[in-house]
Amino acid sequence: xxxxxxxxxxxxxxxxxxxxxxxxxxxxxxxxxxxxxxxxxxxxxxxxxxxxxxxxxxxxxxxxxxxxxxxxxxxxxxxxxxxxxxxxxxxxxxxxxxxxxxxxxxxxxxxxxxxxxxxxxxxxxxxxxxxxxxxxxxxxxxxxxxxxxxxxxxxxxxxxxxxxxxxxxxxxxxxxxxxxxxxxxxxxxxxxxxxxxxxxxxxxxxxxxxxxxxxxxxxxxxxxxxxxxxxxxxxxxxxxxxxxxxxxxxxxxxxxxxxxxxxxxxxxxxxxxxxxxxxxxxxxxxxxxxxxxxxxxxxxxxxxxxxxxxxxxxxxxxxxxxxxxxxxxxxxxxxxxxxxxxxxxxxxxxxxxxxxxx
Length: 358
Fold this sequence. Notes:
The protein has helices at 8-11, 18-29, 34-40, 46-60, 67-84, 103-121, 126-130, 134-146, 152-159, 163-177, 194-206, 216-226, 242-256, 261-288, 297-324, 330-356. The chain is mainly α and 358 residues long.
């Protein structure tokens, strides 16, 4: 569809206003009969598609660097996020979902993901992973990541972050924290077995076992309210660095494509194992700042529950999947390492954003 527009070699020299292009895309999302409109009037999306082509070249060309690269990454991931979020229900105007199955939106999403994912995977040695003892590697990684060393970023969060910095941290984290574990729900349907049962147990605890007041996102909202922040989902979308959006979009991709089931569960294993150490940093910051229990309650809850979840994910999900899919088990390790790589990158971006706004 309009593939002739994507001639990166001619678009690199052009200048694009990504904010204007994103606003154009938002209007497209609200267009009645979007696919029909694009088919009948391709000129309507010509500038948007040129902006996407330019951003893809700028973001993922190895010779590109600097602020223009960051702007291109951010534009692409904001476009992806706006498409991906349609996979969840937000209890808003039902008309917002009228294009959720649009072929054009799928085409835009696939176009961006194809280039972006190839770039992400280029940072990992997949050949080496395939030659690894997967079980042993998962166990060793799990033991190391349960108590990672104190990095410069961790030390900053524990010892230097201000109250305003802590508020900024919550604003960024709220994009994910207020829709707790929603993407995990996308992989739970299908045949029943012990792996599925464990994943459901993880989800149920994240969702407070069906009680809204115990749902983890409720604790996150209480933290934000205690500090005078907005508690509506996506209220602070404009503050979120592209590196954080990339993690969210990555998980949307892995959960919506069942072919990536192993890769997603490898990543979730890392996330649940390392979670308590990250939340310890945030809780120590809140304690040092002498904030109320409500202003740190989410972290305390996660530290307690994710210690169990990490063990469950390793012993009752990842290792059994190695047995069930011996030829593809290396994808669990790929998912684990990729989640760690992208998570560390996002963490650094968050600290950088906090420091720049302090």
